[in-house]
Inverse folding.
């Protein structure tokens, strides 16, 4: 899809979540508590830290969901077979990218005693599965995908026995390390379910942007579905029986109770997690459809080159983190080697407060924008180069 035929609101939303994602990763490398506890841990967090982490929850589901929508736009100019082949090729490429270029960006080492299978991995696997789903009738895909998203939490209490069964279940539904005689594979940071079906729902969303759909009607549907998702989230969370493996509870103060209420599970994404992230995203698509101006254009530029932004921002943030650690006397090697995977007691005391984290985040995003704008222009002027569609 060339630039003049793109849907600006989708690019704006995608750009927004990429920028928010960068905040989470800057926090990972610069905040003084990032190495030692979960910001959603109610016993240790504070309001600013909790909501900083919570808002970044929107990134992965919206990224995967809109990748499905982009695939629908591709389908408008390709046969189903061509679309399926494109999805397979891109999916396998993303899996390779995760375990090579992306992995090195996170760890800055060539040893493979630890391997992440993160969001790029799950994006690639979801595309591979979508390559088969596109042959099915749209209504069937919509029904099966909705059933998977709604129903996968019914298996939260299931614990298979045996090493093979446990391995398969970790791949499908449980986040964790897998050990093979000292080879520690953090292979399932993003378990498979229900991500492919989130992407498939995004694919079906694309039908709302067909030329025969009235724009006002489309915005009304987006509003209604988005508001319904938020309402169902509130209702199910109040009932506190189904939709998330972490029930909320009344805490010592009303503020902590609110935190408990919104502390939903991301790994794997629960039904409630997806409702409270994708619901507002759909509302955003409705209200941003006619947005114009410098900020909208800026976000749309980032949103047109999301994978490019993703890859370069990891390297820039990690390198800056290593420089910051070395400059403050903690040794750059503490962040350069095996960061996130092994205990790093030498980093105890390293880091900055959340205000500094936000300043670094803004500086990084502003600094990366010219590169994104250049690459966006380069892609537009080299549309015949099919390899550019892979980054």
């Amino acid at each position: 899809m060339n630039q003049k035929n793109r849907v600006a609101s989708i690019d704006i939303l995608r750009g927004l979540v990429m920028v928010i994602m960068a905040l989470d990763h800057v926090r990972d490398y610069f905040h003084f508590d990032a190495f030692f506890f979960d910001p959603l841990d109610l016993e240790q967090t504070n309001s600013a830290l909790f909501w900083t982490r919570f808002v970044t929850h929107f990134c992965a589901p919206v990224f995967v969901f809109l990748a499905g929508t982009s695939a629908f736009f591709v389908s408008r100019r390709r046969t189903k077979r061509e679309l399926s082949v494109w999805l397979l090729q891109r999916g396998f490429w993303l899996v390779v990218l995760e375990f090579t270029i992306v992995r090195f960006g996170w760890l800055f080492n060539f040893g493979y005693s630890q391997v992440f299978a993160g969001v790029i991995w799950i994006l690639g696997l979801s595309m591979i599965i979508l390559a088969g789903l596109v042959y099915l009738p749209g209504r069937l895909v919509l029904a099966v995908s909705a059933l998977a998203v709604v129903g996968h939490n019914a298996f939260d209490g299931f614990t298979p026995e045996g090493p093979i069964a446990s391995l398969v279940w970790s791949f499908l539904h449980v986040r964790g390390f897998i050990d093979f005689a000292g080879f520690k594979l953090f292979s399932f940071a993003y378990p498979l379910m229900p991500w492919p079906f989130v992407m498939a729902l995004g694919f079906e969303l694309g039908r709302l942007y067909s030329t025969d759909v009235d724009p006002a009607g489309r915005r009304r549907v987006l509003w209604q579905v988005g508001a319904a998702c938020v309402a169902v989230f509130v209702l199910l969370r109040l009932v506190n029986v189904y939709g998330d493996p972490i029930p909320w509870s009344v805490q010592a103060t009303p503020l902590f109770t609110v935190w408990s209420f919104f502390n939903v599970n991301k790994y794997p994404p629960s039904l409630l997690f997806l409702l409270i992230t994708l619901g507002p995203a759909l509302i955003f698509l409705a209200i941003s459809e006619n947005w114009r101006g410098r900020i909208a254009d800026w976000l749309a530029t980032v949103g047109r080159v999301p994978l490019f932004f993703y890859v370069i921002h990891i390297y820039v943030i990690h390198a800056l983190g290593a420089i910051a650690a070395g400059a403050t006397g903690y040794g750059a090697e503490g962040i350069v080697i095996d960061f996130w995977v092994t205990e790093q007691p030498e980093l105890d005391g390293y880091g900055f407060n959340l205000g500094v984290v936000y300043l670094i985040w803004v500086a990084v995003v502003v600094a990366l924008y010219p590169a994104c704008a250049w690459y966006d222009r380069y892609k537009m002027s080299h549309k015949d180069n099919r390899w550019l569609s892979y980054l």
